[in-house]
Amino acid sequence: MSTSKVAVASGSAEPSILEEKNEGNGILKTPLPTPTASSSVPEKPELTADHQSKYEWLLKRVKSWTEVHSKEKSGPLTDSEKMWLTRECLLRFLRATKWHEKESEKRLMETLAWRREYGVEELDPDHIGPENATGKQILLGYDKHCRPCHYLSPGRQNTDVSPRQTQHLVFMLERIIELMPAQQETLSLLINFKTNKSRSNTAPGINQGREILHILQTYYPERLGRAMIINVPWVVWGFFKLITPFIDPLTREKLKFNEDMTQFVPKEQLWAEFPGGELQFEYDHDVYWPALQRLCAEKRAEQVRRWEAGDKQIGEKEGYLKGHDAQGVSLPADYPSEGNSQAGGAA
Questions:
Q1: What's the CA angle centered on 232, arms 229 and 237, to 5 degrees?
Q2: What tens digit of pLDDT does each residue of 301-314 get?
Q3: What are the backbone angles phi and psi of residue 35, rounded to the nearest 5°?
Q4: I want to staple 331 with a disulfide (CB 3.0 to 4.6 A). Which of 8, 89, 160, 327 is the partner?
Q5: What is the DSSP secondary structure assignment for residue 205, as one 8-state letter?
């Protein structure tokens, strides 16, 4: 399969974040902003004529929307919602519904309504921060296909079951999407069920597990590239057996248990807590948490700037928003491309 390299644009603020990473002992304490030079994104196949026709039908329908209808927060479609409705977003929902156009339209509108009612865009790092005080969720490094790695360490659980625990996961999903390089739409999930002295049972409750699965499969379709899971105790195996009926068959195929993770993640970007990993990382909440917010805010602001420069198009290309494509779906001819401007967004 052919692949494409991911370039980092000059002029990005990311090197300043990298410079903060060490305290003279070689231990990383901040996120890594880019994949390794040897990592690459697999090429995506061209749309068939039938799929292109279905995409164009869906795009036309979505462009006709003026309002989002929800139980409590109905109102005009906002700029941030229009920007969320990218070409790739529409295609993800089409693939998730097996290319049923009307079902895709229904699910897109339901997702917009859920995002409003759940308050996805209002989730605040100061409110979420206490959930991550122990580093039970970490966004760190990239796999060999340039997917950002999302580490879950249930043994570091520091809070009781509450709505904020699920909000925490949604918040981190939104951040990892911002960290995805151009041309990559999926993430790698790495789960280490290693226990600690204060937390022997690392399995979530069945109700919470079902809620999280529903959110992931319904509102974040086609986002999981691979899930790698190690140190699975018997009680967690029991949990997986209970939730397996609720897991989409395509998702089940992406689950890898106790495999050599260096097959999938470069060892220099694989956290040393996982077998074969060489990345020395130590979670320091006061350092990592603000660095993550700053890095994501920079990427988010650059995407907004490019979307506005591209005339605020519904159906905009994510490759353009993330600085890979010089031109969007409707871009002024004289707009500077990444090759001749310091402003191109890095991915």
A1: 105
A2: 999 999 999 999 99
A3: -70, 175
A4: 327
A5: P
Residue 342, CA distances (Å) to 307, 317, 323, 337, 339 in order: 17, 20, 11, 9, 8
57-89 residue pLDDT tens: 999 999 999 999 999 999 999 999 999 999 999
Phi, psi angles (nearest 5°) of residue 21: -70, -30
DSSP string for 158-170: -S-S-HHHHHHHH
- 64/69 Cα distance (integer angstroms): 14
SS3 25: coil
- Radius of gyration (Cα) for the chain, nearest Å? 20
Phi, psi of 328 (to 5 degrees): -90, -165
Which residue in 293, 292, 345 sits closest to 319, CA to CA?
Answer: 345
- In total, the chain counts a number of residues equal to 347
Q: How far is CA 73 from the centre of its chain?
A: 25
Which residue has tokens 């309504």?
113
- Full-model pTM: 0.86
Q: Rounded to an integer, what distance in angstroms lies between the CA atom of residue 97 and that of residue 73?
A: 26
3-state secondary structure of 75: strand
> Under a CB-based contact definition with an 8 Å cutoff, are residues 218 and 107 in contact?
yes
Distances (CA, A) of 18 to 14, 160, 248, 266: 7, 34, 38, 18
C-alpha distances in Å from residue 103, one per residue of 57, 203, 209 = 12, 34, 25
